[in-house]
Fold each of these.
Amino acid sequence: MNHLTRLIEAALFSADRPLVLAELRALEPGTSAQDVEEALDQLRGVYDTGEHGITLAQLGDGYQLLSRPEMAEALTRARITSRPRRLSVAALETLAVIAYRQPVGRSEIEEIRGVAADGVLRSLQERSLIDIAGRGEGLGRPLLYGTTPKFLELVGLKDIAELPRLDELAVALRPLAAPGADDLGLEELAGDADENERDDADETGERE
């Protein structure tokens, strides 16, 4: 690897979040975006062809070194990795609606889910998973919501176009207790049923 590639590797290893091109260019004066992209391609090739336990992933506009998916079960079992703060069922459902229908207003979200969404929207904004994406053309020009780069980081996607199709989603979101659900890692986000019911009550003001 050349010097720039090693610098980028060191920066990605040290960072606790994805780094964007501008940050990686700052590692070495006079470095162009193309130089960084070529170094990233070289680094990706090193990890993809060398049977390493980590890989270079693009998450939104940034890049991050991550453990390979096939390593996740062993790392979790050994308690090597920390679990992210879990999202309630209400938060997951609301996040899914926003991800697939963005930009979308609160009234449409509430119509789809059948419950008030103020608390859930506030919670998702506080976690930087959604943000205001503009205003609608209806009465009062309601706020519209969309997902953020942190959402892409959470779900491990480069951009929103990589979301599974709705027919694929119906399979992925089968009940968590079904055989094989653990393999999908869904319990990491959803938590247990009792905890989710408490969170739903806090975020929506009523149980579903």
Amino acid sequence: MVMFNSKKKDIIYSPINGNCIDLKQLNDGVFSELLLGNGIAFRFEGNLVCSPCYGEVVLVAPTKHAVGIKMKNGAEILVHVGLDTAELNGKGMKTLIKYGERVRPGDQLIVIDRNFMETNNIDLSTIVVVTNSNEYIFNPNGNVNVKVKDELFEIKKRDESESHIKNKQ
């Protein structure tokens, strides 16, 4: 059993084994234009997507392609598997968690049928965004090879003085 440092609960961790990419590289305007928030995307070869943070599951999409997690600091994290996967209505995916469950980095969220996805030419770029990112300070870095539970970036609540300073610049 891996013990986590309790001081590291405001960290976003890798949910997969693969490569981080910048959201702007995605072929989907909703994510590449940061309409749902800022974050990071991943390309991977496996079939398992894990929790990128400590928190409570506040959304499990009926189409099984997305999970929302609320961190203790209030950050709202969306884990979205693939592009245009909502249209599959859950085919090729299985959720492994339920609404209200507490999760930790590395807990299994979604398993995908890689063969089904590849046969149907589904882009499995997986996205982790902070949907209320305007309330937080963080710096996601792309183009890095990662493994599940690798630390990606710290996410801190923006205080009023920081917001005031940023707005003046």
Amino acid sequence: MTGGGSARRALAGSLLALVALHASTLAGDLYRIDEHVASVEFSVDGLGLFSERGSFGRFHGLLSLDLARPEATTIAVTTDAKSAMMGWAAATAQLSSSAYFDVARYPVMHFASRQVTRSAPDLYRVAGTVEIRGIERPLQLQARLVHPAHTPGPGPAAADFVVTGEIRRSALGMTADRPLISDFVHLTIHAHILLRSATDG
């Protein structure tokens, strides 16, 4: 493992530690985010005629959530770039190549929020920084919160989030296959969080 890989792991650990510290300061609930409770999907337009879709199979992070003050929310996520996949093997292999995620040199990606602001009822703008292929870029996401409601039966309340955004792959050094594949990559994240009750501690 290269020194750069160790530095990236240390950065990811630091981000998660900062989120945990910030969460305790805000008295918000802290939740782990991974592929068991969320999905991270992406799509690109091909030739302006169709959409190609893919997803990431492995990621983990921490979400500090206070439903009484959603603007205090913070999130940091690390994604395994090697887990990127599309509908057929050739496309999945291409995503790992140096022309795209270059997983041999940059095996992980990071996102950390900086600010969450309300833009409409139940709609929030999440400003943060993403690091892909060792390149950091600002990333604006839009998050919609579905009000928590009890699941059928006696189970705990749950909150569902749909997060969308867009990023230019050329800004991250991925310029291959233009103009066959659009420069803009559309992101969609779904998360289902089982909320802690006041008696959970």
